[in-house]
Amino acid sequence: MSHSFIANAATAEEDLWSALKQTYFGDREIHENADDVLILEAPTRAEDAAIVPISVKSVQPQTAERYIKNIHIIIDKNPMPYSANFHLSPTLGDIDIATRVRVDQYTDMRAIAEMNDGSLHMVSKFVKASGGCSAPAGKDMEAAMARLGKMQIRMREANIGETTKAQVVVSHPNNSGLQFDQKTRGYIPPHYVKEIIIDFDDENLITLEAGISISEDPSIRFSFTPQKHGVLKAMVNDTKEMTYSMDKQI
Q1: Where are the domains of the chain?
Q2: pTM for the whole structure
Q3: Which helix or strand (DSSP H or E) is residue 20 part of?
């Protein structure tokens, strides 16, 4: 591979990010290589481009005075690059969140922490995967629709005052609108989860705003520290204005 080709490719990548940055954040300053604020974990080469596991973790303690209020996930070369926004409560404590995304082609993936003072801090990783946004669903569509909206809240028994892990999963095909139906010879209309709200005792912990980049059967794994007994509730809204919910007593 010639040096000029590599240089041109690098310039194209930089130009793409510059355009995306302007679109989503305008002229706001973004501090890059912010490993002192956030850690982004993702496979260098994904086994399945339609189900790529990623996680984001805070490095600094989250306090009422200084905390991460949003984590923006950008997948540069996806059809919808702005892939997710996690709105976070300071009561969540230290951040450890995981989900699964689709990756359409070799691309930079970015996690941008927006602090409560408005400052932006970015970490990124290059992920090798392709075809994830147009890949057919892993399940038969009829079976997937029969399970539509079925939810699980998975967690071990929680001890008050101790950090525990929980996972919210909803059965949903999360059709991107780019998948081709071999039977009908047409594209499957988009129908995907646009919001997941997780509350504990009527206080919001996490609200995920999502798009087509989230994998089928959307999942959020997270850590939190319950300070009392209460109800963990998850509510899911999709693009057909359907709502699903589930509670778990802690």
Answers
A1: 9-135, 149-202+216-249
A2: 0.91
A3: helix 3-25
